[in-house]
Write a structure and sequence with these properties.
Helix 3 (44-72) runs antiparallel to helix 5 (85-99) and helix 5 (85-99) packs across helix 7. The chain has helices at residues 2-5, 19-41, 44-72, 77-80, 85-99, 105-121, 133-154, 162-186, 211-228. It is mainly alpha-helical and 246 residues long. The protein is built from nine helices and no strands.
């Protein structure tokens, strides 16, 4: 048990696209699809309970991550503020589901799904493999964020619009500038806008700072509009009754 939570892991390190990684992604995908199917077939009471369960699971998982870092002596302002996209989306998603803030659904779908899917594919695990708490905490938090983002369009019936897409892109750029200023002030690298991540990622193939920031901007301007495309002919827009989508 101590080894499972130990800050110094001596077991098999995380292997990108190894068997454990692939199985974890498959389990998350199957669980998300099963939950969404149940939500579409269930009533308002079931949907309310699922929203509550997703929110509480996110809060417990993220709180546990902070407690673990405090116990390990690795909690610092430079690492643990909720400023990375996925860290911020954990808290935003939990609050949105708890309070049913439909105005924040665009963030859950566009940023939650896009950011957390990338993190599931190339998670920042460091040395920690499948036999460690860090592996399960990381995969669970990102899996829950993706599930919640898909839930709002598949079950709650919310639909993206061009204005919501534009607002998310503009807001993300403004957020990036704020986080860059914070990074420069405290010596951190939140959002990876000050330097490339140390762990393996697609950014390994990008040029050095600041040139890679333009590539990241280009990815945003391609991926988020692609996420809107399946809904472009849906005339209902965002103002719908909240019943499950057909």
């Amino acid at each position: 048990m101590f080894e499972f939570f130990s800050p110094h892991f001596d077991g098999e390190p995380f292997g990108l696209f190894g068997a454990a990684h692939i199985i974890a992604i498959a389990v998350i995908a199957a669980a998300a699809l099963a939950l969404i199917r149940a939500g579409r077939n269930g009533g308002a009471g079931l949907r309310r309970r699922v929203r509550l369960a997703l929110a509480l699971a996110l809060l417990l998982d993220e709180s546990g991550w902070h407690v673990w870092n405090l116990a390990a002596g690795s909690w610092t302002l430079q690492r643990m503020l909720p400023l990375h996209l996925c860290s911020a989306m954990v808290w935003i998603t939990a609050v949105t589901l708890l309070l049913e803030k439909r105005s924040l659904y665009p963030l859950l779908y566009f940023l939650g799904v896009a950011g957390a899917v990338q993190a599931l594919i190339t998670p920042d695990m460091g040395e920690y493999g499948v036999a460690h708490y860090r592996f399960f905490q990381t995969m669970l938090s990102h899996g829950l964020v993706v599930t919640a983002g898909l839930w709002v369009v598949s079950v709650e019936g919310w639909r993206p619009t061009l204005p919501s897409l534009g607002a998310v892109i503009a807001g993300l750029n403004a957020y990036g500038l704020v986080v860059l200023w914070i990074n420069l002030r405290i010596g951190s690298n939140y959002l990876y806008v000050a330097a490339k991540p140390e762990s393996a990622s697609v950014m390994d193939f990008f040029p050095e700072w600041p040139a890679y920031l333009w590539i990241l901007e280009g990815i945003v301007l391609v991926v988020l509009p692609l996420m809107y495309l399946p809904f472009r002919n849906d005339g209902r827009g965002e103002r719908i009754t909240g019943t499950p989508a057909p």
